[in-house]
Structures are given as C-alpha cells and as structure tokens.
C-alpha cells in the first residue's frame, strides 16, 4: 500500500472517533488540525457524565436527537476547555456539518473543512462557509485504509 496522505490520515482519525459515538442515529467524528498536527478531536455524544442514547434511547425533538453534542462542537469545546487556539486551524469531519456547527466552525476561526460524506448539506451553511471564505473540500475516506489495518499492515 502507498504511504497514506495527510488528508486520508486525518479523515481516518475522524472515522475512528466516530466509533466512540453514543448516539444510535448517526456516528460522527471530527478532528481539528493545525500544521499537520492533531490539536483536538470529538464525536457526537452526551455531555460528560450524562445518560447515553445507546443506553436510554435518543431524546428526539422535531426529528433531532437533542441529547448529544455534535462532534464538531465537542472538538471545538475541547480547544476552549484547554486553551488551544482554533484560529487558522482546519477540521476533518465524517459528515457535512449541520447549520449550528457550521456557525461555530466559522466563528472559531477554522479556515477549512474537509468532510467525507454529504449529509443534508444545508444551503445556508454552504452560503455561510462561502461568505466566510472557509475552504470546503469533500475527501471521501478510502476503504483500503482500514482494510490495510485489518490485514495487520503486511502484504496482502
Ligand atoms: Zn441520540
Ligand atoms: Zn452539528
């Protein structure tokens, strides 16, 4: 297998984080990167110490699970909690961010969003990202990344 690209490496990290999700509706992972280094990561789940959707079911209002904090928010809040600047950083996320996360991403000074899958891509989110000059790039995760890991890293 060829050496993994940085884009694939960070996107794989976001997909690994998604495996930690506690919401049964959708598993999302997000990684914040600066100068090719991971500075924070998050997945969608309950607030620390809160009940998990996986244990008690989702708390659905108007078609959305309100129990969880989104992966993008969790990653940004991790930076807030530990005093890590997000200005000029980049985010890798498994799914196209919702409108709330879009606004938080822009406001936190993140300059680029790489997402693997389309997910209800909100036209207003697209408009806001464009307006703010945030680079938006779809980077699908290559499945051979995990196939390679599952193989134990050796020759197939
Ligand atoms: Zn849920
Ligand atoms: Zn969101």
Binned strand content: 15-25%
Bound molecules: zinc ion
The major sheet is characterized as: 5 strands, mixed
Uncertain regions: pLDDT < 50 for 5+ in a row?
none
What is the overall shape? globular
Q: How many β-strand runs?
A: 7
CATH structural architecture = 3-Layer(aba) Sandwich
Strand order of the largest sheet: 2-1-5-6-7
Cofactor: Zn(2+)
Protein name: ComE operon protein 2
Keywords: Hydrolase, Metal-binding, Zinc
Family: Belongs to the cytidine and deoxycytidylate deaminase family.
Note the main attributes of this structure.
single chain, 156 residues, alpha/beta, Cytidine Deaminase, domain 2, 5-stranded mixed beta sheet, two-stranded antiparallel sheet, 6 helices, binds zinc ion, hydrolase, zinc, ComE operon protein 2, Competence_ComEB, dCMP_deaminase
Can you put this structure into words, describing what you see?
There is one protein chain. This protein is α/β, with parallel strands linked by helices. The protein has one domain (10-141): 3-Layer(aba) Sandwich (Cytidine Deaminase, domain 2). It has six helices and seven strands, in the order αββαββαβαβαβα. The strands form two sheets. It has a five-stranded mixed beta sheet, sandwiched between helices. A two-stranded antiparallel sheet has the order 3-4. Helix 4 (99-107) packs parallel to helix 5. The longest helix is centred in the first third of the chain and has 13 residues, at 6-18. It is globular and about 50 Å long. The N and C termini lie close together (9 Å). The mean pLDDT is 94. InterPro entries: APOBEC/CMP_deaminase_Zn-bd, CMP_dCMP_dom, Competence_ComEB, Cytidine_deaminase-like, dCMP_deaminase, dCMP_deaminase-rel, Deoxycytidylate_deaminase_dom. The active site is at 72 (proton donor). This is ComE operon protein 2.
């Amino acid at each position: 297998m060829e050496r993994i690209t940085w884009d694939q490496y960070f996107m794989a990290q976001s997909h690994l984080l998604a495996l930690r999700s506690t919401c049964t509706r959708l598993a999302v992972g997000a990684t914040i990167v600066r100068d090719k280094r991971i500075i924070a990561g998050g997945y969608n789940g309950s607030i620390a110490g809160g009940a998990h959707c996986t244990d008690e079911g989702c708390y659905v209002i108007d078609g959305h699970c309100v129990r969880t904090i989104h992966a993008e928010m969790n990653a940004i809040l991790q930076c807030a909690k530990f005093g890590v600047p997000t200005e000029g950083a980049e985010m890798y996320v498994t799914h196209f961010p919702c409108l709330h996360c879009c606004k938080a991403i822009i406001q936190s000074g993140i300059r680029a969003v790489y997402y693997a899958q389309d997910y209800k891509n909100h036209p207003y989110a697209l408009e806001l990202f464009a307006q703010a000059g945030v680079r938006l790039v779809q980077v699908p995760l290559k499945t051979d990344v995990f196939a390679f890991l599952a193989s134990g890293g050796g020759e197939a």
